[in-house]
Amino acid sequence: MADSPTLPQPPAGGTPNVLVVGGGTSGNALTVLLRRAGIAVDLVEASPDWKAAAGAGITLQGNALRVLREVGVLDGIEKDGFAAEGVAILAPDGTVLHAHEELRTGGDDLPAHIGMRRPGLQQLLIDQVRASGADVRLGTTATAFEQDGEGVDVTFSDSTNRRYDLVVGADGLHSATREMIGITDRPEPTGMGIWRAPAPRPAGVRRTEMVYGGRCFIAGYCPTGEDTVYAYLVERLRDRASLNPDTYADEMRALSEGYDGAWQELRTAFTDPKAVNYTRFDRHLVEGPWHRGRVVLVGDAAHACPPTLAQGAAMSLEDVQVLAELLTGRDDWDDRLLTEYHARRLPRVRMVVDASVQLGQWLLDGVRDADVPGLIGRTMNALKELP
User: Of 27, 289, 321, 374, which sits most exposed with the smallest number of CB within 10 A?
Assistant: First the structure.
């Protein structure tokens, strides 16, 4: 397979067709935006039930909300989520050390950020995909691509085949699409791990609050609705294979000991080990082209970073917005279009990945005089600009 065969123009007077591989946040959002422009879209998702992880929460910064408004789910997010009233840094005993309003990276007409349960966001996006008329196939993966000068022949796990004008790999951090097209970049651990669980929202908690120090690098929580929060504890990475999943709730309760204030109430909710998630922080950035021929990557398949800036979802959604803008605004779907997509996205994504990793590295190294506010401020100010 040649690295960069010429992409075809969409059929004259006809409808181009696109395959989106992966039905997560970025794949669903892209499907909706392309369908709205009249492009035929097939979406395949490996999971048979198309659901998000039950216990996870998500912080949607303003620049993510800007794209989600375009997708048509902002009203649902505002209804089901919680627009946090700023951010506070606390001492382990719960004393407020610093509180501030956040920069509105999506513009003054959008909240600085909204926290919500991941399954709620996923369902809103699923509903939009269904309403768009896209052809959705669950429990299905793409297993092979054969490219020529006029299209991509895709073989699926159910032994069917179909031809497309463009294939978009939105299949996450461990993307099979990325591997199949020969991009060898892989996620690398940063040395940190995070425990996450939902909990009832303590009375008075109306903002994101974080403790730096104590038994963990970071102990924080973010409101995700009128009655819920998403709690997390960040520590030095442990070998997950050495951890018994049946003890996850016990581990999270033990790590939260020593944190007072709202944590006294939160830790009593960590009782179900199946509701607790433990995962590592990764750094991932494909520096070279994000496409091979007419197969292109978006979201975590191309880049990912620790959640120290809460920008992972936003970067993925910005990818989708830029790619959809180019595909729906050009007559020629050629190699230059996908090269332009990469050129527009790479500097901004690299800035976020590097800043997110640096914030964690300072904690790992015990740097006490690091310019954390300066780095966050510079990065978030840059993100106010349109991608």
Answer: 374
